[in-house]
TrEMBL record:
The keyword Iron does not apply. This is Peptidase M4. Residues 146-163 have a biased composition (Basic and acidic residues). InterPro entries: PepSY (IPR025711). Residues 168-186 have a biased composition (Polar residues). Residues 1-20, 36-74, 100-127, 139-200 are annotated as: Disordered. Residues 85-140, 167-226 form the PepSY domain.
Amino acid sequence: MVTKRNSSVPRRGRPSISRGAGLVCAAAVAAALLTGCGDDDDGGGTTTDAAKTAQTPTPAASPSAGDGSLTEDQAERKALIPKAKVGYEEALRTAVAAVDKSKPVSVELKGPADSPKWETEVATSDGAKHTVDVDAVTGKAGQARADADQDASDKTELADRLKKATVTPEQAAQTATDKTKGTVSSVELDDTDGGTPKWSVDVVSTEDWNKTTFDIDATNRKILREHVDRD
């Protein structure tokens, strides 16, 4: 209901044109609550409070954590993870078998969801690295590809890292999933700032599709860092 204000009622003695404008203005406010009313001589008008309220859009409700909405990354994980019928362990075994006398360096599940694959990296004792793509549905391995970007120092560094790492990727992943239940989507051998080898393990929870990354000491299985990605 719109209450007619005293200011909308023309005062005695004002010109008839102003009185007519006031009547038209009041009718417009009652009908649409959108038209402002003012004197004709300055070309402008003062918008009524009701009109301001009608013109202000109502903000859209923001998604809440409990309404079941997913972020873009969570939606991608939800679409990809269930499509992988082959686990990371089998993918690593397949990749190691494809390159003679090699050890696992990394494995990561990649899309698209309708054609998932495990991108794996293995290296020989001299640090020479090879990439092997393993079909995450059939388990079939593609052709091993040598890393053309590696130089002599890269190979020496990787060979030293592999030699120091006494914890296997499977053991590191077990440590991670003992802490957070979920599906392993990535395991990678790296170094800490102090030069100690570590395994970085990503675990995706199938309850909320968050990803937890663990840095695990590759010499004693100690958890060095834990980070939850809720994006």
